[in-house]
Amino acid sequence: MLVYNYLENNSLAQSLFGNSHSSIQLDWKTRVKICIGVASGLKYLHEEVRPVIVHRDIKASNILLDKDLSPKISDFGLAKLFPGNMTHISTRVAGTLGYLAPEYAIRGQLTKKADVYSFGVLLLEIVSGRCHTDPRLPLQDQFLLERAWALYESGDLKSLVDSTLKGVFDTEEAQRLLKIGLLCTQDTPKIRPSMSTIVKMLKGECAIGDKIMRPGLITDVMDLKIRTVEPVQFSASPPKSPSDSNSQVSMLAVAGSTVVEESP
């Protein structure tokens, strides 16, 4: 049995993506605090405990908020322990589409950098107030990471910041956080920073650098076959039978489903 402190303010997802009647309004300072808090939690799991713990399912619905809106990482049901000097393992894919690192989604190669990728997507969500995938938007805008990259290339990254903030945010800090999100989602795992470096970057104690390359995008793995474990309710066409469980990653990315890789 797991016992948690009572966390009055439910999940971060509910505050970010819930309906407009949500009683919790996340101002800019609170969002920055949440980003640093989650990053510090992952730093602890990756660098301060033994064996190392890789969470594998970092996402907004797994971040709970206490009475002070401080974040707590929850749901360790998919977590993997890395004993000794082990730096990576090959395993069945588990996690949530849209947050999965490409090398993990395609090859099942798990490292701490898979959590870093997921955190990068989460960081973009917190700053933008958008879910990683929104099928209601025009096709070119549906995937948050792809939209962020396009805006970065055009020099208009600031326009991704959540409009509900009504312009009340630190522009320089917001652009820094969005760049960190892109850096965390780089296609090559070795280029992604460690969580301790990310914490320093978030606090403005460490330079990000200007060399940010194209991130690992969900459309790069569109042909990946998966089967759904927990389709979310707003999925347009959830599987109706075992024979229907195979689908393209694009459809399930829209659903934001938790998935495992199909056995050969």
Automatic annotation (TrEMBL):
Region (Disordered) residue spans: 233-264
Compartment list: Membrane
Keyword Nucleotide-binding: yes
SUPFAM superfamilies from the UniProt entry: Protein kinase-like (PK-like)
UniProt keyword Transmembrane helix present: yes
InterPro entries found in the cross-reference section: CR_Ser/Thr_kinase, Kinase-like_dom_sf, Prot_kinase_dom, Ser-Thr/Tyr_kinase_cat_dom, Ser/Thr_kinase_AS
Biased composition (Polar residues): 234-250
Keywords, in A-Z order: ATP-binding, Glycoprotein, Kinase, Membrane, Nucleotide-binding, Phosphoprotein, Receptor, Repeat, Serine/threonine-protein kinase, Signal, Transferase, Transmembrane, Transmembrane helix
Topology with respect to the bilayer: Single-pass membrane protein
One Pfam family, short name: PK_Tyr_Ser-Thr
Record-given protein name: Protein kinase domain-containing protein
Domain Protein kinase: residue ranges: 1-217
Origin organism lineage: Eukaryota, Viridiplantae, Streptophyta, Embryophyta, Tracheophyta
Gene Ontology molecular-function annotations: ATP binding; protein serine/threonine kinase activity
Gene Ontology cellular component list: membrane
Organism the protein comes from: Oryza glumipatula
Coiled coil regions, renumbered to chain: none
